[in-house]
């Protein structure tokens, strides 16, 4: 039975119950009305009216009962129709289920076919993706391997630097520990000496008294004479002890001074970052076109002859497209000639008279540039209150070079290095920077005045009122005069650091590699040498020898032979330390 049948049956039952209830109530009302009428024959109007109302009620109930009966019949008919429709719906549902099963079977078959094709296509796509991923993975693996190698090399370099730093730190700690131990030992020795001196003083006092009495008794000496002899004996002993103490202090100073000096120089070089310069004696001027070369040469070469005569610069015109060369060993004159020719090319009017006019203008402009360069250098170094003539001479160094290194930049770099060293030593940094900055001022007049540029620079500094410490630092920086002050020594050291670093000077850079190779060849050619290491830019050589072939005495002889051969065959600034390292090993077998 469906839900619709249940609903219709429930409605019929409720209507039937309502009809029965109405009939029962109507019957009771009739009995109640008919009972009093049998007992009294007199009709009451109220009862009559009440009876009529009940009759009307019964009539309406009968009408409602009939309507309910008709409604029940209609409901039964509707229920029968609903059952018929439900049966038809069941038949349609069965057909729909059968059709759905057929469609589902068809869809499953098509789905299996599509799934099979999809599997095949997916396998093909997966194979292509695997191939592409394999190729991409190989490329990424190659890139990763390259990156890993670079990182490994970087890590190795950092590890080497860290090892060097740790070694330096350990050496510094060992040195400090050794120094503290020596200080403690010296303090203990001083305490013992103090006690011994006190006891000796007591003994000397007693001996002096006895000696005085004995001498007065035996030799007839006076107390003053005896006192004089005692003072002389004590003075001799005090001088001996003072000499021993001075010797210990000097040994300690020699042990720590070199390490401290090396630390200061390395610190100064690390903090000064200067560019690598390489000047040339030839300048190149680019032209707007090759037809400009004919105008520069002029009719029968009169323009080029006038230009070379006025400027003193050789003008080279060759097959180089849209360019000419200016050659001159005087960099200031070469710069004036280059600027003159540049202005002539821009102006377009090139003839002898015009060349002279433009030359004067270019000369004044170069002087202004030199003056400005000198002022900028002074500001960078932090030097004030300098004579104007010295500023002019410093400006000339803007276009002068020394072995390819610009002299003015060299002065600035030297001043910075000297200032850092002075700060580390707690000295007068401005004074030392001033001496280092002016040490090559004589190069501005070397071609005009005879003599060494160091002595010429010292005369100029003395002439224009510089301090005597600055003058001495200038004249002593190449040992024409022996250095007598710390300012002169620091000027020499900073000058050597600036000019001797690799890349600063063209010839030094070329000779640097050759010197290292030759040093390694000299040391490696000796008997018993296992490895050779050139350290500190060739300033120190570490020679590792085989302990079985070279003993301790042979190591000393080898170090002396290598140092002597280096002195005879090579040219180098400063000094080169040769260190021979021999490892001693003792092996025993326990059986």
UniProtKB/TrEMBL annotation:
CDD domains: HDc, KH-I_RNaseY. Keywords: Endonuclease, Hydrolase, Nuclease, RNA-binding. It comes from the Bacteria. Residues 148-179 have a biased composition (Basic and acidic residues). Its EC number is 3.1.-.-. Residues 36-57, 144-179 are annotated as: Disordered. Residues 407-500 form the HD domain. This is Ribonuclease Y. It comes from Asanoa siamensis.
């Amino acid at each position: 039975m469906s839900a619709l049948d249940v609903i219709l049956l429930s409605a019929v039952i409720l209507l039937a119950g309502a009809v029965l209830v109405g009939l029962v109530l109507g019957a009771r009302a009739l009995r109640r009305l008919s009972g009093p009428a049998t007992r009294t024959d007199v009709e009451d109007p109220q009862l009559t009216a009440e009876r009529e109302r009940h009759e009307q009620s019964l009539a309406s109930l009968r009408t409602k009962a009939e309507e309910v009966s008709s409604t029940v019949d209609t409901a039964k008919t509707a229920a029968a129709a609903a059952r018929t429709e439900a049966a038809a719906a069941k038949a349609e549902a069965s057909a729909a289920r059968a059709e759905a099963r057929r469609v589902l079977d068809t869809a499953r078959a098509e789905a299996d076919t599509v799934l099979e094709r999809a599997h095949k296509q997916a396998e093909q796509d997966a194979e292509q993706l695997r191939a592409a991923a394999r190729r991409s993975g190989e490329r990424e693996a190659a890139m990763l391997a390259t990156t890993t190698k670079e990182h490994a090399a970087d890590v190795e370099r950092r590890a080497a630097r860290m090892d060097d730093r740790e070694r330096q730190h350990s050496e510094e700690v060992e040195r400090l520990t050794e120094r503290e131990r020596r200080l403690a030992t010296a303090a203990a020795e001083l305490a013992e000496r103090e006690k011994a001196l006190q006891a000796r003083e007591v003994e000397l006092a007693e001996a002096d008294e006895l000696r005085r009495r004995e001498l007065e008794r035996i030799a007839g000496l006076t107390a003053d004479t005896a006192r004089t002899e005692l003072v002389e004996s004590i003075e001799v002993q005090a001088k001996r002890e003072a000499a021993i103490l001075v010797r210990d202090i000097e040994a300690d100073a020699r042990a720590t001074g070199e390490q401290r000096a090396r630390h200061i120089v390395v610190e100064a070089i690390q903090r000064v970052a200067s560019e690598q310069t390489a000047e040339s004696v030839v300048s190149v001027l680019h032209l707007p076109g090759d037809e400009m070369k004919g105008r520069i040469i002029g009719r029968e070469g009169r323009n080029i002859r006038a230009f070379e005569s006025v400027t003193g610069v050789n003008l080279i015109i060759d097959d180089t497209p849209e360019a000419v060369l200016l050659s001159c060993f005087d960099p200031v004159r070469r710069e004036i000639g280059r600027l003159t020719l540049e202005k002539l090319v821009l102006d377009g009017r090139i003839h002898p008279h015009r060349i002279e006019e433009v030359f004067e203008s270019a000369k004044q402009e170069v002087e202004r540039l030199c003056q400005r360069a000198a002022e900028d250098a002074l500001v960078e170094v932090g030097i004030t209150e300098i004579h104007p003539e010295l500023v002019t001479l410093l400006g000339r160094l803007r276009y002068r070079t020394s072995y390819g290194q610009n002299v003015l930049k060299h002065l600035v770099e030297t001043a910075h290095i000297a200032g850092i060293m002075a700060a580390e030593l707690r000295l007068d940094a401005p004074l030392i920077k001033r001496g280092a900055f002016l040490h090559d001022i004589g190069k501005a007049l070397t071609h005009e005045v005879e003599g060494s540029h160091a002595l010429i620079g010292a005369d100029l500094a003395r002439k224009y009122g510089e301090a005597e410490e600055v003058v001495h630092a200038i004249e002593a920086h190449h040992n024409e005069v022996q250095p007598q002050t710390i300012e002169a020594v620091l000027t020499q050291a900073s000058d050597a650091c600036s000019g001797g670093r690799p890349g600063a000077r063209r010839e030094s850079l070329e000779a640097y590699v050759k010197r290292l190779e030759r040093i390694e060849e000299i040391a490696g050619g000796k008997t018993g040498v296992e490895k050779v290491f050139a350290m500190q830019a060739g300033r120190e050589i570490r020679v590792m020898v085989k302990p079985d072939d070279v003993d301790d005495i042979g190591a000393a002889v080898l170090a002396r032979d290598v140092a002597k051969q280096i002195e005879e065959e090579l040219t180098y600034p400063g000094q080169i330390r040769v260190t021979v390292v021999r490892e001693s090993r003792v092996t025993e077998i326990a059986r």
